[in-house]
Amino acid sequence: MDHFELKNGELYAENVPLARIAEEVGTPVYVYSRATLERHARVFREGLSVLPRVHCAFAVKANPNLAVLKVMQREGFGADVVSGGEMARALAAGMPAQDVVFSGVGKNARELAQGLEAGIGQFNIESEEEGVELAAIAAAKGLTASCALRVNPDVDAGTHEKISTGKAENKFGVPIDRAPGIYARLAAMPGLDMRGVAVHIGSQLSDLEPMERAFEKVGSLVSDLRGQGLTVTHVDLGGGLGVPYKAGEIMPSPAEYGAMIARVTKDWDVTLMFEPGRVIAGNAGILLTRVIRVKRSSNGPPFVIVDAAMNDLARPALYGSWHDFDAVKPRGGKMTANIVGPICETGDTFAMGREIDTMEAGDLAVFRTAGAYGATMASSYNSRGFVAEVMVDGDVYATVADRILPEDIYAAERVPDWLS
Ligand code: LLP
């Protein structure tokens, strides 16, 4: 459930008309609903309330905006980060370092040191090589890194191939059958406190069954490790819960997810950690756009050309993903159209032959479910700059990221003397 609803014939974000935001901030603009973020955070936690010890870390990659992170911090979430930049943001938003988990297959020496110096709660190590490097850096600093070993359970998550992470051929984690040896070797190194195991098999999962299979494998691993006399106090079950992108689509609920996990993990006796991103932020944001013009086509539906493009919302171009597209002030009728942006490539297409609200030049519309993997994946391709982001809270809103103009971007570029 979200708080982007029609009231008196026009779309609102909570109690603020989207038309007002478009007027005052301009388009395209991402709009987040604080109430929706909070609701999703609470429903997620509530779903896990059947579990004894839980730590939730919001996956910063889904939406790293400082205001969004602040909402999550106030909801008691930590942060799952995958770069030094995300770590800095999480800390800047006020997340306690202890509540930060550092994932990622390519953490470099500088980032490992940054995490150690900040005193983050857990490093999710993705290879033996990374563990050895972290141990050396930690020992040299006289510090100890709390670590989990990320395992690759070789399970097909049944999601888009580009966001699947738990198959043997994916780059993530160590093969689960090699995990006992690697864990034992790392646990013997000064500088490391091996305290658990981590797993994440992919994103936008619409079925709990592959997760359950992966978690069962992790359960056997935990027993094996303990059987070898190794300590396991934490298991990080990652993120991945899917969200509905189409009106009416049904996804597993946090309550069903929690019930499945309670069943699988009942004998584990560990603190369970979670890294949800999309399920919290996805439906808490929209991308508000204006129709530039409607262009007739010679042999198909008209092109509705909007002022947002693939550089602002990359998901349709990258993964062929669907985002519902609705008029802010529906005119009543329907039309079939191709929805495209202004960028000079055919990939800049949001939908082909889609039945949508009737649109005319100048009309406002939204792409829904753009709160996760939206603004954060933007680029400045075609020198379009970066769009503004707004957060609504009841009757008020604030700009939480300024629009970055093309001239701001090229101000960081230089023409060397020998060219001028
Ligand atoms: N933990 C780890 C280790 C991850 O790799 C991810 C996502 C998450 C947590 C959060 O997953 P979530 O709960 O959001 O599904 N750009 C793609 C999604 C990439 C997800 C990458 N990893 C998209 O737009 O669909």
Report on the structure:
The chain contains 12 helices and 21 strands. The protein is of the alpha/beta class and 420 residues long. It folds into 2 domains: 4-31 and 282-410, Lyase, Ornithine Decarboxylase, Chain A, domain 1; 34-279, TIM Barrel (Alpha-Beta Barrel), CATH 3.20.20. The longest helix has 19 residues, at 209-227. The mean pLDDT is 97. The structure holds ligand LLP. Ligand LLP is lined by residues 59, 61-62, 80, 103, 163, 165, 200, 203-204, 238-241, 275-279, 315, 319, 372-373.
Label the overall shape: globular
Give start-end ranges of low-pLDDT stretches.
none
Query: What is the strand content?
Result: 25-35%
Number of domains: 2
Per CATH, the superfamily of the largest domain is Alanine racemase
Averaged pLDDT: 97
- The CATH topology of the largest domain, please? TIM Barrel
Rounded to an integer in angstroms, the radius of gyration calculated over CA atoms is 23 Å
Secondary structure tally: strands: 21
The unique ligands bound to this protein are: ligand LLP
* Total of DSSP H or I helical runs spanning 4+ residues: 12
- The first-to-last residue Cα distance is 57 Å
> Which class best fits the helix and strand makeup?
alpha/beta
Largest sheet: 9 strands, mixed
CATH class of the largest domain: Alpha Beta
Query: Can you name the CATH architecture of the largest domain?
Result: Alpha-Beta Barrel
Residues in helix, %: 25-40%
EC number: 4.1.1.20
Modified residues (N6-(pyridoxal phosphate)lysine): 61
Function: Specifically catalyzes the decarboxylation of meso-diaminopimelate (meso-DAP) to L-lysine.
Catalytic activity: meso-2,6-diaminopimelate + H(+) = L-lysine + CO2
